[in-house]
Write a structure and sequence with these properties.
elongated, 0% strand, mainly alpha
Length: 345
């Protein structure tokens, strides 16, 4: 049979077998995956499909062509396998879908794309999911494509990444999910909104504890994009001030002392320090207050204790349709930190 011949052959013989009748390989895989119920066999077949695609990226086109000729969805069979109870099957299927979605000339679209991205998002949120690194790897592939970035942001993906990063996760997950944020930050309008989800405070916290250089490097790359990519000057400045208030400058000084050999890190450190210094120079106390409120990290900074500050600025709380008051109310309703609640009151 095709499967046993293919599995037992070397790379060159495999390619010759596929070229002999390209659509036969897709037909065999689809047919077996649709008719076999035994978990162990499905695991084996999915691993074979994954290897099949990994060997030659253009083989994705074989599945596409087979589905087109049969007027069937190229995705339906694989998306159904995501519902199987076996976690290995689910995650090997996700790897296959991600490769097909990223290596195909035609992008994944509509309900199929939304279904897959929601599945990835839900898997990230699942407590004690031992396949979370595999899920993150799928996202690292998918988010290289702008259309997929926008769709992922549209289904609440950014909030989920931030939520996972705010919990206790190992350095590998920190790196992978920050890498996902870095990819998202290449799209200017998404970069503009990123800090609305508290990305800067969370990443600043991780940076202060980071033991691995690759984690520090990818966080600094995100910070740089949050200054370079947004088109509005106001957003660039707000992000700079937020970084300053989250003590990023101090972390950069500590990193600078470590005499790092990685040129990307040293360039990013110099860039971020310069941008933060210039933003803070002409910073009014009210600008500082606004950034503090938006960061959600309230503390007894001097403005909170100054009668003069409130006499001069209290009326500004009505600006932009009470934007700051709404943020304060939200903090009072959702935050559990006693210091934040005291200052907000």
């Amino acid at each position: 049979s095709f499967i046993s011949t293919y599995d037992g052959a070397d790379v060159e013989a495999r390619e010759a077998l596929v070229q002999e009748n390209p659509l036969q390989s897709a037909k065999t895989f689809y047919s077996l995956l649709g008719h076999i119920s035994k978990d162990q066999t499905i695991q084996y077949l999915l691993t074979l499909v994954d290897d099949f695609l990994q060997e030659r990226k253009n083989r994705v086109g074989i599945f596409r062509e087979y589905a087109r000729k049969r007027k069937e969805s190229v995705w339906a069979q694989f998306l159904n396998l995501l519902n199987r109870p076996d976690p290995f099957i689910q995650n090997m299927t996700a790897r296959v879908i991600a490769k097909m979605a990223c290596w195909s000339p035609q992008p994944m679209q509509g309900q199929d794309l939304q279904h897959f991205l929601l599945w990835l998002k839900d898997q990230m949120k699942m407590p004690k999911n031992k396949y979370v690194e595999s899920v993150a790897r799928c996202l690292q592939m998918m988010l290289r494509i702008e259309e997929y970035r926008r769709s992922f942001a549209g289904v609440g993906g950014v909030e989920t990444i931030v939520s996972v990063l705010s919990g206790k996760v190992n350095f590998q997950i920190q790196y992978q999910l920050t890498f996902c944020l870095w990819l998202i930050s290449f799209t200017p309008d998404l970069a503009t909104k990123l800090n609305k989800y508290g990305v800067i405070p969370i990443l600043a916290d991780i940076l202060s504890d980071a033991q691995k250089e690759k984690v520090s490097r990818i966080i600094l790359a995100v910070f740089r994009n949050l200054i370079e990519k947004p088109e509005e000057r106001e957003v660039k400045k707000e992000n700079c001030i937020s970084m300053f208030q989250c003590k990023v400058m101090k972390q950069l000084e500590l990193l600078e002392q470590r005499k790092l050999e990685d040129e990307d890190i040293t360039d990013d450190i110099a860039f971020l320090m310069e941008k933060m210094e210039s933003s803070v120079q002409d910073l009014s106390s009210y600008d500082e207050y606004v950034t503090e409120i938006k960061s959600g990290r309230l503390e007894w900074s001097p403005v909170h204790r100054s009668d003069r500050f409130w006499r001069e600025n209290a009326h500004k709380l009505n600006d932009k349709n009470y934007e700051l008051l709404k943020i304060l109310l939200n903090l009072l309703e959702t935050n559990n930190d006693p210091l934040v609640l005291c200052v907000a009151c």
